[in-house]
């Protein structure tokens, strides 16, 4: 391999494949899609691959199907000798150049006939089993531990996550690189006011609301956010809606009931559980008066950067990876303290000086956290792996 030739990298796009996701991307899907779009600008020839359900390979639209489904590949991984590898290059066609490297963007990784880099975002099912579904917890733990051990190198989104990967998965810290996630350049440009206003009107919103974005699940701590909002003075609640954007997740039944009760009581609470349009999501950020992110645990926390790029002042938890991502650009609070959360929301609603400081610092931080920069750093990891 010479430096003049583009690296030829197979990229796992299972989490971003429309035929498998229905077009609704979670954080893993956003990450995979961003690498697919931005790695070519970093000097990488990207070939997308997906683990497809048996018999459904023809439905794939984003990339090619790997030779085996993930369950079959995993079964072969367990039963076959260590010298036997999944031939990812086989699906490229006769005479095609082989892959230099394969990048698995989540825990679905098996032995390959080329070096493997794996992105592991956190060790949540092991570090905090109370926040993971018991139905899948044991399987995901086992798969992630195997992935960590099979990969030649591991990428993670924050320095905070390194400690978890070392303690929970036994990964050698020398095999881990931190590559912060980012936003696309278009996030830094305000959407047309007319389009933004049309989206807000469609959903019954008035500009200046408190916004949260994320799946409704225990670690996102939305129940305390709702309590903090309801503890605001009535004059602030009447002026500023609380807008919650996110699909219901595991153990969200009680929270959903609390949201509906607040709505029935005439509170200014709006829940958008089916928003899948990226343009509309940008419009919702642009219309917010403040973004509040009370999560108890994040391996990175991409919505924080989306809010920074959108010019919205941010209040967030001062825990796990979030202070590392914010770098002082957000008001931080103890996510277990409803009173602290209410105080931060009050400050962002009333103090124009602090609002302006947070907006400016957030924009500067967003300029440092772009997908172009993430792609360059990821390509540098590839080169480092292949040089050893």
TrEMBL record:
It comes from the Bacteria. Keywords: Transferase. Coiled coil: none annotated. Residues 209-364 form the Glycosyl transferase family domain. Gene3D superfamilies: Glycogen Phosphorylase B (3.40.50.2000). InterPro entries: Glyco_trans_1 (IPR001296), Glyco_trans_4-like_N (IPR028098). The keyword Nucleus does not apply. Residues 26-183 form the Glycosyltransferase subfamily 4-like N-terminal domain. This is Glycosyltransferase family 4 protein. It comes from Duganella aceris.
